[in-house]
Please model this.
Amino acid sequence: MAVSMKWFYVAWVLAVVLAFPLIQASGVYAAESTAQEKTLSFLTDVILLDLTKYNVTLVSDSVTYPAEYGGLTQEEVRYKLETNGSDLDVTFVYRDSILAFGTIYVHPDRSPLHYTQAQPANLIDTTKGLLERYQKYTGSSRYQELRDTLDLVAKVESTTVTLGNVKLRIYAEGRIASFAWAYLYNGLEKPGLDIVFSYGAVETINDQWNLFKVGSTTVSVSKEEAISIARERAKSFSWKVGLDPNATEIKDFKILDEPVKTSLGLRTREPLTLYPHWLVTLYFDKTYPGSVIGVEVGIWADTGEIHYIIAVSTGGGFPPPPEDSTVPPTEPPSSQQPGFLGSSLPVEYGYAIVTIIVVAIATAAFLVYFRKIKKTTGEVKEILKEPYNERETRTFATLFHTIMLR
Model:
């Protein structure tokens, strides 16, 4: 009898302990499931779309754990909005349940959208209103700083304005108008919020305001030193033309003294953490095989260490970077978060399965022990006769206590 009780206690304690991660995981998934609600809320409360005029269909809802974001939960939600004469493809991405990126593509481009209220004729006023609603949507007062920079702009044209530590760049060309805000740290720009309009309607929103933190703003490497480091590294650079094992390796080239393109900014060296970074582009005297016209060298401005070196091609694209054993990878390989006990099974599912097994064992132990009771009191019999809704609050207290007294 004592042995049965011992195992009974152990099984139930294990069930309770293992249930806590499952409860926490359930809370996470409950939070993730609201991404659909957040997307629809953004469309109605921020963009002011009248969804009653559209046939709204959920296309997909997926969850990943990108390594470059420290394994944070990333959820992508896609909707299709259809109405007479036009369709909208909506894709929103949330990281750690916070909006990171959203796109609203209208087909065809010039199709009018259905709003719940008339939109201002001036795009500056439209953007001000959108930021005010977005601030309410996020619950963060810091977006007021972004909205205030628009008071310095009279019309939509390509320009740059700065208010305090906030810089706003406006680009306007044809159907496109973009507003890009950045926060200044000792002259370095931390990415903030980007909003792109197409024919006066919001097409994309990219919000990194709350996602990244700044690890350092110390610039120990000057522009001249960065160029010198890049030139020295470029001397031993080479690339291959072709994909077969016998591809031609190109390593004889001439680097011009001028022009040299440099830029200083912030880049991720650790997940979600930014550090000062030099980008130096050196140009060759001619176009070499593979349409290569130069090299681009990334250098950490606080340490002087080389981040990467790649070939620059005429099309603006870059061939695959060559292996460089002297430059350790700065970002972990992209993969999903490790599964339960190292398997591919999601951690939450693993805990669920284990919990179910333990509860089953505990229940079996309970039943075995219950059957061994030779004498059951009248109180227990009466409790078991009651309807579930009436006895559920008594069973674990009275019934369990009565059996333990045996």
Observations:
- The radius of gyration is 30 Å.
- Residues 2-33 form the longest helix (32 residues).
- The CA atoms of residues 48 and 117 lie 7 Å apart.
